[in-house]
Amino acid sequence: MTSREIRRLYFENFINNRHKMIQRSSLIPPNNDATTLFVSSGMQPLVPYLLGETHPEGSRLVDIQTCLRAQDIEEVGDSRHTTFFEMLGNWSLGDYFKSEQLSWYFNFLVDKIGLDPNRLFVTCFIGDEDNEIPRDQESAQIWQKLFKSKNIDHEIVEIGSEKNGYKIGMKQGRIFYYDHTKNWWCRSGSINEMPVNEPGGPDSEVFYEFDFIEHDLSYGQYCHPNCDCGRFVEIGNSVFMEYLKTEHGFKLLPKKNVDFGGGLERLTAASLNTNDIFRIDLFWPIINQLEVLSQKKYSSHQESMRVIADHLKAAVFLANDGVVPSNKTQGYVMRRLIRRAIRYGFDLGIENNFLNQVVSIIQGIYQQDYPDLIDNQLKIEEVLTKEEKVFRQTLRKGLREFDKIINLKLKIEGKDVFKLYDTYGFPYELVIEEAFKQDIDVDQNWRSDFDVLMLDQKNRSRTASKGTFKGGLAGHEDIHKKYHTATHLMYQALRMVLGEHVIQHGSNITDERLRFDFSHPDKLTIEEIKKIEKIVNDQIKADLEVSFQEVPVGIALNQLKALGAFNDRYDSIVKVYSMTPKGQTEPFSREICGGPHVAHTNLLAENGQKFKIIKEESSSAGIRRIKAVLS
Length: 631
Hints:
Blueprint: H1 3-15, E1 20-21, H2 47-50, E2 60-68, E3 84-93, H3 98-112, E4 120-125, H4 137-149, E5 155-160, H5 162-168, E6 173-178, H6 180-183, E7 184-186, E8 199-209, E9 232-246, E10 249-263, H7 264-272, H8 284-294, H9 302-320, H10 329-347, H11 355-366, H12 372-375, H13 377-408, E11 411-412, H14 414-424, H15 428-437, E12 441-442, H16 446-466, H17 478-498, E13 504-509, E14 514-519, H18 526-541, E15 545-552, H19 553-559, E16 573-580, E17 589-592, E18 611-620, E19 623-630
Parallel strand pairs: 1-2, 4-6, 5-6, 11-12
Antiparallel strand pairs: 2-3, 3-10, 4-8, 7-8, 8-9, 9-10, 13-14, 14-19, 15-16, 16-17, 18-19
């Protein structure tokens, strides 16, 4: 079955069940979403409606959303990872719930696109005793009935964690219970770190089994649906958003939502029973064109052709949505995608300009479903070919710099490779290849030295891009949330010790430290630094509760007196985070911020860490800079 047939049948299936079709959103998040560089999931553009706003098209919606996950760039090259993909979605905003959702999707898979129900396996939420959330028996019972209707055995197996799955295995199961790390959805990623007033709920995933794939023991002793060996692929996830986090635990939402997402590419691959996603009709014409251009076969050059096909497709859709290559934010990612594609073209022996010939194939694949690709054809081609021309000039400069380096030394080291990569955009693979061509020695530790420098650069680049957004986070891992929370505490402590003239002038946060710029005319004394540290550590020890409310910006600034950052532009509705001592109503800290944070401040010291200022220096005239750690 082709991807276009699956598109059509999916829309028909849900339109027949009284859903309204809505258009895709741009890959660039709307202005009020400062959490990511790109739309990376089907639900992202619909978050306001999942949180209670009324959608103009009603309570039953269906769409296909283009998505881009830049964090997967380095993974592309195997048979299933891509940066760009399309997500089938259907939504119930306080309308239908589990019974309808699971039945409709199962029937779509089996009766509409013809998947063998014997190849389908499902997962459900095992429950969470600590948060008094019961296991999702209702979904499991619905799945039992659905499999029984097709005369399929439906044994239930309790797995728990993914790690446990490698010890337990399949055990003839059809329905599997996993814990909150696999079958719970919330925006914060973890059930235990959900802030007050955050919605979430259990989810139920559907997996397709490629029975010709043998389990790879390097992943664990036994295979299970969430195993990474490639035997199973997730082809749909129904999220049942029915809980709200409160100060006293979880309570049921007055309206229960359904948020479904299913990858179109994965579904198409499953319908063909191929575990190589690049053999479907959304990729194969690109692969064929690369075979013609390179005079090489896909079977012997899979990685290079996969990278080029994925990266140029992502670049085409980014250009269509108005992104141009640059050294900042979305443009930086786009530039990296294009340059990686060109670099892999060298692997195929394609040394002349070729992007136009691939772009035209991509536009042909999608022109019926995304006619704007044809409307914007000239703009897209101009953006990509201009970058191709610039990069080929960069490569020539890199080769000249390479010659300078080898004239000064007898061996290529990791720092040389990094300089060529970072300053001249010269791919490290080409540096090593050129060294071997010219019979130049390469230090055996070049890669480890290069990786150290690259990791530091990634942290700085990621922070630079995230720093343009609210909070300045480099990620949303636990450590980033801790440092973000510590930044709020320190901001208030600075004002208490130095005075109310202290205003934030910028911050960024990595997994190693926080950095905070603020207005103050003088260098801080040792006594002032110690006072600030003590205040912050005292508030961590006091275990303040962290909560937020969404209010009009005028109320936040004038009535709540919430702190903000110098020259920040705020939306009409903002989040105000408060950190309040237990049993009190007046917070220690109240600040306009997009989040995320930990739920209570004692989590900053859960492993015995203390807040410590490690550096205080001038940033610019009248602006000081602090770097601090939890250690």
